[in-house]
Design brief:
mainly alpha, globular, 312 residues, 11 helices, 3% strand
């Protein structure tokens, strides 16, 4: 037996952001600006890391991959949203919806795993500083990123296959601005109890396991920082973690907000706001957090921009 959609649904309607016609130009300009800032900021981080020999360290290697993931993550939803607002269309094809959901889950999961890897990197740097270059060698760094990609792809594939098993009735109106999994489940006319159990189990395993790994790493980091005698040494050790902690807090808080609001029985504007915070605002703020809190990144970005400007 293979997964098929019995009703042969060919398209869905994305309703969110389509009701208030007078707000469409403002919304279009705001989302476009946020998207361009996200693309430009994360692209600058990638170029700075690749071009500056002083940033050829595991922490910045993982940061460049996180920036690439954020670019792709944002690009799964905003361009389609902008096209729909501009054309005043609500339509997304069935295949397009499944594809969008697959890549959204893929890059959300990849962000999650990269944050875990970055937490492990900070753990090794602070708790085992003398062995840092030996443990966090280029081979291990590349392997950790590769494993993150593989697990994220498999996780997203399972989620997408579950959606392919669903049967949809005549109601094809998605109360969201993208093909979000919980909203798709609400439209299904087939029994989704077993699928919901699988989804929830995977979400708890992924989210709970990730948070446990990060909390464990930082509990060891805090213990190591307490053993440092000088206040300057403690401040320096903590400052290396400040950017990552800020990004982790922002990512998981907005993810939890989106999950809880989308799982609510009635869809509301709070669900849309939470999703925008998670899928648009968080990737946009990440480059600012790292550039403002990291002197190395700040210096490299300044040098990179000045060099490109003077060449013109």
């Amino acid at each position: 037996m293979k997964p098929v959609n019995d009703t042969q649904i060919s398209e869905f309607l994305l309703l969110r952001f389509s009701e208030e016609a007078e707000l469409q130009p403002l919304l279009l300009g705001l989302l476009l600006s946020m998207y361009l800032i996200t693309m430009f900021g994360n692209l600058l981080i990638i170029l700075a890391v690749k071009s500056d020999c002083h940033l050829q360290m595991p922490m910045y290697f993982f940061l460049s991959h996180l920036s690439f993931s954020d670019i792709c993550f944002t690009s799964t939803t905003i361009p389609k949203m902008l096209v729909n607002i501009q054309s005043q269309s609500k339509v997304i094809t069935y295949k397009g919806c499944i594809t969008q959901a697959y890549f959204f889950i893929l890059f959300a999961a990849l962000d999650n795993f990269l944050l875990i890897v970055m937490a492990y990197d900070r753990f090794v740097a602070i708790c085992h500083p003398l062995l840092y270059t030996i443990i966090m060698n280029p081979q291990l760094c590349g392997l950790l990123v590769l494993i993150s990609w593989i697990i994220s792809a498999l996780y997203s594939l399972i989620q997408s296959l579950i959606m392919l098993w669903l049967s949809f009735c005549t109601n094809v109106e998605i109360s969201h601005f993208f093909c979000e999994l919980n909203q798709m489940f609400k439209l299904a006319c087939s029994d989704t109890f077993l699928y919901n159990m699988v989804i929830y189990f995977e979400a708890i395993l992924l989210g709970g396991g990730s948070l446990f790994g990060i909390f464990y790493s930082y509990s060891k980091i805090v213990s190591s920082i307490h053993t440092i005698s000088s206040a300057q040494g403690k401040h320096k050790a903590f400052s290396t973690c400040a950017s990552h902690l800020s990004v982790v807090s922002l990512f998981y808080c907005t993810a939890l907000g989106m999950y809880l609001s989308s799982a609510a029985p009635q869809s509301s504007h709070s669900s849309t706001i939470a999703s925008v915070m998670y899928s648009v605002v968080t990737p946009m703020l990440n480059p600012f957090i790292y550039s403002l809190r990291s002197k190395d990144i700040n210096k490299s970005l300044t040098t990179f921009i000045v060099m490109k400007t003077t060449k013109r």
